[in-house]
Design brief:
Elements lengths: L3 E4 L2 E4 L4 E7 L3 E12 L6 E7 L4 E3 L7 E6 L4 E6 L8 E11 L2 E6 L3 E6 L1
Parallel strand pairs: 2-11
Antiparallel strand pairs: 1-3, 3-8, 4-5, 4-9, 5-6, 7-8, 9-10, 9-11
């Protein structure tokens, strides 16, 4: 199987932290680039952060200085460290990655993980 599975979401108070994880399945040999997106109720999905496997990162303005993204190809994992969380960060967070498989490079989305920040 070629899939991504997110975990680490939950309920946290404003000002708190969470670390989201995105695990690549056995059918994936490496992660080339990855991004985290989020979708709040009634809103469109938006880009949160991206990273290459070389460590080049980009962040949406609304998370700069609070979130970090990283790829660990030894573990085939993508992480999103979220600090100083705000109620407006509440959303379903999705991992997306371009991954290397036996059939070539593919794009995959995870199923999403809910993050809820209480005020």
């Amino acid at each position: 199987q070629v899939q991504l599975v997110e975990s680490g979401g939950g309920l946290v108070q404003a000002g708190g932290s969470l670390r989201l994880s995105c695990a690549a399945s056995e059918g994936i040999s490496s992660i080339n680039t990855a991004g985290w997106y989020r979708q709040a109720p009634g809103k469109q999905r938006e880009l949160v952060a991206t990273s290459t496997n070389g460590g080049s990162t980009n962040f949406a303005d609304f998370v700069k200085g609070r979130f970090t993204i990283s790829i660990d190809n030894a573990k085939k994992m993508v992480y999103l460290q979220m600090n100083s969380l705000k109620p407006e960060d509440t959303a379903v967070y999705y991992c997306n990655a371009f991954v290397q498989t036996l059939s070539g490079m593919k794009s995959r989305w995870g199923q999403g993980t809910q993050v809820t920040v209480s005020s």
